[in-house]
Every structure is written in C-alpha cells, then in structure tokens.
Design brief:
2 domains; alpha/beta; Rossmann fold
Length: 337
C-alpha cells in the first residue's frame, strides 16, 4: 500500500509531507509547522507534482501564525516563489486568498483556512479518479503505454493523473503494461513511478529516456500518457523536461500522445506555451554523476525543469470534465464558458 503523499496531523497541528527525495529506499515524513518549512519542502522537491504542490501550499497558508494581513501577504508571496511553472500552485493560493478576503473574523479565519486546504486535498483525489475513468476509456483492453516523470498518487492528493488513467484501466480489467522513463536528471520515473506501479502490482518496466523512441519502433505502443504542470489556452503543455522529445517521437511513430491533468492545470490567461515561465534548477542536479563522480566545474550546465509540448503534437487532453480534442483553443474556450 502506498504511503500518503500529504497528511494533516490534527493533534500536532502540522502538515506531514512524504519526503520523496528518499524514495524508494526510505519512507519518512517532514513535519512542517510553518509556511516557510512548507515552502522549502516544495523548493527542494521533497513534495513535487503540480497538484501536490498546490495542496501543500494551501496547507502552508493555513499554518500562518499569527494570522494578520501582513503575515498572510508575506506567506502568499513566499509560496508563490517556490515553483513558477506549476500553475496549480497559483490556483490553490488564489483559492486560499479568496477565503482571507471573505472571512474578516481573525478567530474564525484560522479554522476556515484549514478547512479550505483539506477541501482542496479531498477534491483532488476525486478529480483524479474522474480523470482516470475518462482516460481509461481511450485505451484498448490489451495495451502497452509509455509514461514520463511521475504523475501518480505521489504527485497529487492521491490516485494520480497519468497514473490514474493506468490505475483505472487496470480496475476495469484491462491488461496494461507500462514502460516508465527514468526521467533525468532527478529520476522521478526510476525512483517514484516504477516503485509506485510496482507497489500496486501493475506491470512496469523501467527504461532510460533515450530508449523510448527505439522502443516505439520495436514494439507496439498504444499510447504515451503524461501529466502536466501548465496547459496554455491553445493546448501547448508544459511538463517535465523530456516530454517534448517524447511527443515528437510519438508523432513520428503514429502513437497517440495523451495529457492527463485537472482543469486547474489549464491557464486560460496564458495564450501559448511561449508565455509559460520555465523554472531553471540547480546545476548540481546534472553535475553529480553515479558513483560519486562529478562533472568538472569548468563545464557549464543548462538545467530547465520543464519543456513545452506544442498542441499539434497532442492527441487528447483528459480532464475531470471530459476528454478534450483538437482544436484545443476551441475546446478550452468552451470549458471555461
């Protein structure tokens, strides 16, 4: 059974975050009693995945002490700086800010903020299950898929987006085999996705990122399924670095490329992928090599955390509201009325 990604400890009044940097070797939790501790956990990728980041940030706001307008303003600014690409972060912070604007009784606000954070958490699990059900309907009864990074229970409130589709397919009795990209440089696929699927007794094989195109040539792949950190109004999608290349390979080999994400990941105010801010990570993530070796300091390192897949490479976007098909600008406009 998978451990909870996030859990609220009522007795200690703290958010407990599964430290994903230590998985799969060790299951341990960070105990966060302040917004700053939550912010650092997000920045250091102890918690990662767009929906999980948003949930953690919501709890971070609820941990503000003392609750004053100035303190809350500082907390919102601090949490907003943690991971700029994942729009779910800002969606969750906006929901929490709305609560602070509607509730003027400070004594009441502490309780209401926590209730809203818990509501965001529970809603995410139900949203993921709906995404899973819609996505599973796109897969044949016998199917082989490729996934990239980790868009599972560990990246969300529970169940997962891309992996939620895979879980739902299995629950429907479909026979599904998964190839999981290792996902350089932090190896979320190798450390998290492969472990998560194995724990759920789903047939999974780990591959290096560079192996996926050759795999598509050698074996029948029915779909590539990934999550998302931000989807622009035209359907351009930001996801973990390496996703764009996977989409190009899928297009060449005639493999459907499916994005699974909640509506909160769609940013209708962002016209295209060129407007999506791309987070740059620390050099050491690439500089440190297996076997305790290190790339010489004289060699520059470029380490974007995300890339953007153009909408014309995407077959479908699966949300809790249903499956969106091209042209995505029209489908997304209808979704937001």
């Amino acid at each position: 059974m998978l451990p909870d990604t996030l859990r609220w400890n009522e007795e200690e009044r703290q958010l407990e975050i599964l430290d994903q940097r230590k998985l799969p070797k060790e299951v341990s939790y960070l105990c966060c009693k302040t917004p700053e501790e939550v912010a650092v956990a997000i920045e250091d990728m102890a918690v990662r995945g767009a929906p999980a980041i948003g949930i953690a940030a919501a709890y971070g706001v609820a941990l503000t002490r003392p609750i004053t307008k100035d303190a809350l303003d500082d907390v919102f600014l601090r949490l907003a700086r943690t991971r700029p690409t994942a729009v779910n972060l800002f969606w969750a912070l906006n929901r929490m800010r709305k609560v602070t604007e509607e509730v003027t009784d400070i004594a009441l606000l502490e309780r209401v903020l926590l209730e809203e954070a818990k509501r965001i958490h529970l809603e995410d699990i139900e949203i993921n299950k709906k995404i899973g059900a819609y996505g599973a309907s796109l897969l044949p009864n016998d199917c082989t898929v490729i996934t990239h990074c980790n868009a599972g229970a560990l990246a969300t409130g529970g169940y997962g987006t891309a992996l939620g589709v895979i879980r739902a397919a299995k629950d429907k009795g479909k026979r599904i085999k998964v190839y999981a990209d290792e996902t350089r440089p932090v190896l979320q696929g190798a450390r998290l996705t492969a472990w998560e699927l194995y724990q759920d007794q789903i047939d999974v094989t780990l591959i290096c990122d560079s192996m996926a195109p050759f795999l598509m040539k050698k074996e029948k792949i029915h779909a590539v399924i990934v999550g998302a950190d931000r989807i622009a109004k035209n359907g351009d999608t930001a996801n973990k670095i390496g996703t764009y290349g996977l989409a190009v390979a899928a297009k060449f080999h005639g493999v459907p490329f499916i994005v699974a994400a909640p509506v909160s990941t769609i940013d209708p105010g962002c016209s295209s992928g060129g407007k999506i801010p791309i987070e740059m990570r620390k050099e050491k993530e690439i500089r440190l090599l297996p076997g305790a070796m290190e790339v010489p300091q004289e060699i520059p390192v470029w380490n974007p955390a995300f890339d953007v897949t153009p909408a014309n490479l995407i077959t479908a976007i699966v949300t809790e509201k249903g499956v969106l098909y091209p042209p995505f600008d029209e489908a997304i406009s209808k979704l937001f009325g």
